[in-house]
């Protein structure tokens, strides 16, 4: 049986700009063939067992020829595979999608073209340069700076010089000296405004403004403005930057390392991105089930004996309550217990299971939780749900208040021993502006992972306890959250950057 090929537009760079249909098709694929300029975060939408194949990236690996890509598409589909061909921008705009579609059609292989946002359209939203404007440009021409065989001279540049609107030139960095001269020779004014938009929609997007006479010099190798970049030629390139919301965000251009465990880092990363930062991800600890559930299962069997059950984290909520369900029981087992949660996020996790916390302290720390429970703890039987490591403050304070406390470890919290090589190099080179530290365990793991290189980044601490741990390890803290939540941490970085 023949397979199926999806030619998917990945958009201009920001991973959130792919279409819903594009994500649906990625999830179906057995194999993904993706361009080197595609944001690698999009690959997370592929199935866990999908094969991921990069067809080449400048400076890192050999770039496949178009013929090789088409032969591979035919071979894979001929074997009955579902193939996602993930292409930057839109498959039909200077992406050679038509050639791939033609090859598939001639071979009788079913395919679908999934549109994407092309860079010219994204520039209007992300660079504050509308390519149409009722007072300045009622027409747009999308032009390639590279024709077949890398020749920019095949186009009718004289006609384009007289075009009554905006010219958007793709792949024109290395041929700028050719096409700019051709436009001038065709009669276009040398002082025509030009905007060069590099890495449109990426966190490190750059905009360079000049005139048509200057653009060849601005794009010369000496100025190191490397692809991907598009060039916008026309009056719209000289409009005031009042439409540029992207560069006005407070953390724009800041790289922030998010060190929370995989599966728990996205919320923090997205909050940072909303303020313009580029989140990088390197888990410092990993979360795993306990090696043996015997103690957990025994506590579940004895839940009727406890007056309180205390959850110190969202992970504890998930692992403990999921275990109850796995054993074929439900939340009615907790009917006799009052429930305490260390913070709002832990209480929110409980609500997903239909449970409301009876007690949540104002300060989201174990010590504050213990202090809130202490007046009513005497003589009570308390079940404390916790990780394999952590401070014993909660248990000790409750015992001192006269309670009987049983600790149950429901998940393991282990150090990640080695950083990703690229992250490690960036840290060593001082290219990471901020590193988030959300627990003492993460603090200690980061020191083991990066050593003295941590002095080349600013450390953002979630709480005074985390700050004390970092200082005890010999590292200074650039900012500390006033409210001990992820939102509080983002706000602290924001305020420190002002």
Explain this structure.
The protein has 498 residues and is α/β, with parallel strands linked by helices. The protein is 31% helix and 20% strand. It has helices at residues 20-28, 66-78, 97-106, 119-126, 157-161, 176-185, 215-218, 266-274, 294-301, 314-326, 344-351, 366-373, 393-400, 421-428, 440-450, 464-472, 486-497; strands at residues 4-9, 31-34, 51-54, 82-87, 111-114, 140-144, 166-170, 193-198, 206-211, 229-233, 255-258, 278-281, 285-288, 308-311, 338-341, 381-387, 404-415, 434-437, 458-461, 479-480. The longest helix is centred in the N-terminal third of the chain and has 13 residues, at 66-78. It is elongated. It starts with a strand and ends with a helix. 41% of the residues are buried. The model has no long low-confidence stretch (mean pLDDT 92).
List keywords for this structure.
single chain
> Roughly how many Å is the radius of gyration?
28 Å
Give the integer mean of the pLDDT values.
92
User: Strand fraction band?
Assistant: 15-25%
Note the gap between the termini. Answer: 60 Å
Number of helices: 17
Query: Which strand order do you get reading across the main beta sheet?
Result: 3-2-4-1-5
Q: Tell me the overall shape.
A: elongated
Tally of strands = 20
Major sheet summary line? 5 strands, parallel
Share of residues in helices = 25-40%
Structural class from helices and strands?
alpha/beta
User: Uncertain runs with pLDDT below 50, 5 residues or more?
Assistant: none
């Amino acid at each position: 049986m023949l397979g199926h090929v999806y030619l998917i537009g990945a958009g201009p760079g920001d991973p959130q700009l792919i279409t819903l249909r594009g994500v649906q098709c990625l999830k179906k694929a057995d194999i993904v063939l993706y361009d080197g300029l595609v944001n690698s975060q999009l690959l997370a939408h592929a199935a866990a067992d999908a094969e991921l194949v990069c067809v080449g990236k400048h400076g890192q690996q050999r770039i496949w020829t178009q013929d090789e890509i088409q032969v591979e598409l035919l071979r894979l589909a001929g074997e009955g595979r579902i193939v996602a061909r993930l292409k930057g921008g839109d498959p039909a705009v200077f992406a050679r999608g038509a050639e791939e579609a033609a090859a598939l059609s001639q071979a009788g292989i079913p395919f679908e073209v999934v549109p994407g946002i092309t860079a010219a359209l994204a520039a209007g939203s992300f660079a504050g340069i509308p390519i149409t404007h009722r007072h300045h440009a009622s027409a747009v021409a999308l032009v390639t700076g590279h024709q077949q065989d890398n020749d920019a001279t095949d186009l009718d540049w004289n006609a384009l010089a007289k075009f009554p609107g905006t010219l958007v030139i793709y792949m024109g960095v290395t041929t700028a000296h050719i096409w700019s001269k051709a436009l001038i020779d065709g009669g276009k004014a040398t002082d025509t405004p030009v905007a060069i938009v590099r890495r449109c929609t990426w966190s490190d997007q750059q905009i360079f403004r000049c005139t048509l006479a200057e653009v060849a010099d601005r794009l010369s190798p000496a100025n190191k403005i490397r692809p991907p970049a598009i060039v916008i030629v026309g009056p719209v390139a000289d409009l005031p930057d009042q439409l540029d919301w992207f560069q006005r965000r407070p953390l724009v251009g800041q790289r922030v390392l998010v060190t929370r465990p995989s599966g728990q880092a996205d919320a923090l990363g997205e909050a940072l991105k909303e303020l313009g930062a580029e989140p990088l991800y390197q888990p410092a600890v990993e979360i795993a089930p306990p090696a043996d559930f015997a103690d957990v299962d025994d506590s579940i069997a004895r839940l009727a004996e406890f007056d309180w059950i205390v959850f110190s984290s969202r992970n504890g909520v998930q692992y403990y309550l999921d275990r109850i369900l796995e054993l074929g029981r439900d939340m009615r087992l907790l009917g006799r217990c009052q429930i305490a949660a260390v913070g709002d996020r832990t209480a929110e996790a409980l609500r997903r299971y239909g449970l409301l916390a009876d007690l949540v302290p104002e300060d989201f720390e174990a010590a504050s939780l213990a202090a809130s429970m202490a007046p009513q703890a005497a003589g009570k039987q308390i079940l404390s749900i916790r990780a394999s490591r952590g401070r014993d403050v909660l248990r000790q304070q409750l015992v001192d208040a006269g309670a009987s406390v049983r600790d149950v470890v429901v998940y393991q919290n282990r150090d990640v021993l080695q950083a990703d090589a690229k992250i490690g190099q960036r840290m060593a080179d001082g290219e990471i502006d901020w590193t988030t530290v959300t627990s003492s365990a993460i603090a200690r793991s980061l020191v083991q992972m990066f050593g003295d290189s941590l002095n080349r980044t600013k450390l953002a601490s979630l709480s005074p306890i985390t700050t004390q741990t970092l200082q005890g390890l010999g590292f200074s803290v650039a900012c500390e959250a006033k409210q001990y939540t992820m939102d509080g941490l983002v706000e602290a970085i924001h305020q420190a950057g002002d």
